[in-house]
């Protein structure tokens, strides 16, 4: 997907900073990191895969990565416009508006009311695919939560 070049004086739609990374909840921070790694250079996906494999084992990591890929593909193919995603190596501590909405959407799909997740999904996606995106984000988020709880025991 062709992304606009970031220039501080004229940020493209969705790139304007709206939060700082340290203000994100732990689930939102994970979603943001995963989004940036997945959308960045190929070694970002490798880094995400290694992190998940260490935390959950190879079989679960493979399943989680496949689901995240499905979610990312759905979002990137049906977004109202191309999402502005900062590079994972971005030195700044900012979170762009598109990134913040994506992280909030995924967190809400996992832990919040479905209606709220649907409303947030409709901000960035075509309304006809919002239910599918909510279901994908919810199933992935719940799987991550279950895997985290199982690995802590």
Q: Can you walk through the features of this model?
A:
This protein has a two-stranded antiparallel sheet. It has one domain (19-152). It is mainly alpha-helical. The longest helix is centred in the C-terminal third of the chain and has 23 residues, at 130-152. The protein starts with 16 loop residues before the first strand and ends with a helix. Helices cover 65% and strands 5% of the residues. The model has no long low-confidence stretch (mean pLDDT 89).
Proportion of beta-strand residues = under 5%
Count every beta strand, where a strand is a DSSP E run of 2 or more residues.
2
Proportion in helices: 55-70%
Taken from the alpha-carbon principal axes, the silhouette is globular
Structural class: mainly alpha
Adjacency order of strands in the biggest sheet: 1-2
Integer count of domains: 1
The string of secondary-structure elements, in order, is EHHHEHHH
Region (Disordered): 1-21
């Amino acid at each position: 997907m062709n992304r606009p070049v970031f220039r501080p004086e004229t940020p493209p739609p969705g790139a304007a900073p709206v939060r700082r990374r340290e203000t994100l909840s732990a689930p939102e921070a994970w979603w943001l990191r995963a989004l940036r790694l997945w959308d960045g250079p190929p070694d970002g996906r490798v880094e995400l895969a290694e992190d998940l494999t260490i935390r959950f084992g190879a079989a679960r990591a493979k399943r989680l990565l496949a689901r995240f890929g499905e979610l990312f593909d759905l979002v990137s193919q049906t977004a109202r416009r191309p999402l502005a995603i900062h590079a994972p190596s971005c030195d700044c501590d900012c979170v762009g508006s598109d990134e913040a909405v994506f992280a909030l959407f995924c967190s809400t799909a996992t832990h919040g009311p479905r209606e709220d997740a649907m409303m947030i999904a409709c901000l960035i996606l075509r309304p006809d695919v919002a239910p599918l995106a909510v279901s994908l984000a919810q199933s992935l988020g719940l799987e991550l939560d279950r895997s985290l709880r199982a690995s802590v025991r």
